[in-house]
Structure formats: structure tokens, C-alpha cells
């Protein structure tokens, strides 16, 4: 089985399982890089030792969390294409200390949202006020905004899961202000690709990450570890602090397991003494 045949079968099996388009794209890329690393003409000769050695090599350039995504892709490839499943004992994930959660304060939130860039403000509120992942922001369609029922639809997200989240008046207003300026097609993505030669019809999530990183560097509270996902961290932590139960939060965040959601309850209340309440977001005009 050559590289193209293997990748085509891998793609078919992922799409058959209804994995998100982003997962399909990334998993293909991870496997393609491994094939190129070994310069394989016949990928069926791959075995567990080759997979392990490749992961050891990739430790030089990949952070543990990203490396675990590579491991998941390889494990899935062995299962559905080579039909030689790898157990977690044979091919375990990399252990690491999770990235510290950053929760923005009330003052920091107001400073971040004090921008005349209507698109950037929409990005920020989708993270802060709806808890969306950066990829979910990028792939949001105009039709996913249900202003009648005040809901946002997040479709085919991580692991192919879909969900609904509440749409606040503040967020709806920000999206309408963005709409007036950018006028996206009603039948297409809310944030279309920036470049005409883009591989996707929607904005690249890396573009949003870079935009956020450059923006937040302007503030005195900036630290190098800050990232767009911290907006989602803030949303989740404050939702719990303000009475949302963990079962509801799990659904709102689109988590597959409670272990992912429970990381937000590992903080003492004293750590959040200066954190904003969600109602503060509603007061922003």
C-alpha cells in the first residue's frame, strides 16, 4: 500500500466515522509527515517500534499536548488502515503537566473588549461569552446564529460533536456590528478566508491566534503564555463560580469527558477573588 492509497483509505474511514473536517485535515498531515520521515514506498511495513521512534524524534519540535494529537492519529491509522491496533500500553500518550489556566479579571476583560475593530471584538466575545474554541470560531457559519431563540450552533467540532450554546444580547450586538462592516454571505462562513488562495473557505484559526497574540501584547498584563484559549478558560471558570453545575458546563464546552471539565474546579475561591462575574459582560455597550 503506497502513501496515497493509505491516506485515501485513512480519510475515508475518518469521514465515515464523522470526524470533524479539522481533525481529518490534521490527522492526514500528521501521517503524511511520518511517511515522509521514513520515505516509505510501502506504508504497510510500519510497526510499533517505528511509530515509537518517530514520536521520540518529534519530541524535539512538538509540545506534549500536540504530540499526543500525533499519537492519537497514528494509533487510529494502525487501527482502521493497517488493522493492527496499538494498545495504550504499547503506544501510550506523553505525560506532562497541563498548561496553567489563565482567567482574565474584570478589568482585563473590559480593556480587551475596548477595541474599535469589530471583527476582533466578535472573536473575543465568542471566546469570553460563549466559550468557543478558536477552531469553532473560525468555522462558524452565518446560519449557525439563531437570533430568534438566542442560540449559537457549533457543528462538527472536536471529535465530530455538535452542540448549542446561549447567545447573549452583548454577543449578538457585536456580531451584528461585524456584519454591517464585513457583510459575509448569508449562506457561507461568518468569517471567510482572508486570502483568496486559502485551502479552506473560512478564516484560518492560526490567523485568529496570531491576531489575538499581537493584540494582547499591547497590554501591561500580558505574559508570553497567554493565548486565545484563555478566553474559553475564563468563560468556563466563571460559569462554575457563578453557579453553573459541572454537568451543564460539560455540555456547553462540548467536552467528551468530565476529566476535561473538572480542571476548571481545581482552584480555590481565593484564586478567583478578583475575577469578573459573567453579568459584567452584559453591561458592556
TrEMBL record:
Belongs to the 'phage' integrase family. Residues 99-277 form the Tyr recombinase domain. InterPro entries: CB (IPR044068), DNA_brk_join_enz (IPR011010), Integrase-like_cat_sf (IPR013762), Integrase_catalytic (IPR002104), Integrase_recombinase_N (IPR010998), Integrase_SAM-like_N (IPR004107), Tyrosine_recombinase_XerCD (IPR050090). It comes from the Bacteria. GO terms for molecular function: DNA binding. Residues 1-82 form the Core-binding (CB) domain. GO terms for biological process: DNA integration; DNA recombination. Pfam families: Phage_int_SAM_1, Phage_integrase. This is Integrase.
Amino acid at each position: 500500500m503506497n502513501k496515497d492509497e493509505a491516506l485515501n483509505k485513512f480519510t475515508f474511514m475518518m469521514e465515515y466515522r464523522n470526524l470533524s473536517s479539522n481533525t481529518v485535515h490534521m490527522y492526514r498531515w500528521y501521517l503524511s509527515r511520518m511517511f515522509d520521515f521514513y520515505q516509505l514506498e510501502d506504508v504497510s511495513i510500519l510497526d510499533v517500534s517505528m511509530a515509537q521512534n518517530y514520536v521520540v524524534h518529534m519530541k524535539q519540535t512538538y509540545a506534549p499536548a500536540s504530540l499526543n494529537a500525533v499519537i492519537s492519529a497514528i494509533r487510529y491509522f494502525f487501527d482502521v488502515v493497517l488493522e493492527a491496533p496499538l494498545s495504550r500500553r504499547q503506544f501510550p500518550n506523553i505525560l506532562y503537566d497541563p498548561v496553567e489556566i489563565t482567567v482574565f479579571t474584570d478589568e482585563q476583560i473590559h480593556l480587551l473588549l475596548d477595541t474599535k475593530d469589530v471583527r476582533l471584538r466578535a472573536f473575543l466575545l465568542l471566546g469570553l461569552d460563549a466559550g468557543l474554541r478558536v477552531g469553532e470560531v473560525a468555522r462558524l457559519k452565518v446560519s449557525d446564529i439563531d437570533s430568534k431563540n438566542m442560540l449559537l450552533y457549533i457543528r462538527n467540532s472536536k471529535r465530530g460533536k455538535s452542540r448549542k450554546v446561549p447567545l447573549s444580547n452583548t454577543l449578538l450586538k457585536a456580531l451584528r456590528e461585524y456584519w454591517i462592516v464585513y457583510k459575509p454571505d448569508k449562506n457561507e462562513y461568518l468569517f471567510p478566508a482572508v486570502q483568496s488562495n486559502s485551502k479552506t473557505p473560512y478564516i484560518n484559526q492560526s490567523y485568529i491566534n496570531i491576531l489575538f497574540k499581537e493584540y494582547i501584547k499591547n497590554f501591561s498584563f500580558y505574559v508570553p503564555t497567554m493565548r486565545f484559549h484563555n478566553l474559553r478558560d475564563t468563560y468556563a471558570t466563571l460559569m462554575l463560580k457563578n453557579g453553573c453545575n459541572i454537568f451543564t458546563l460539560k455540555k456547553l464546552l462540548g467536552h467528551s469527558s468530565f476529566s476535561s471539565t473538572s480542571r476548571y474546579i481545581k482552584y480555590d475561591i481565593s484564586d478567583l477573588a478578583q475575577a469578573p462575574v459573567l453579568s459584567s459582560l452584559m453591561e458592556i455597550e
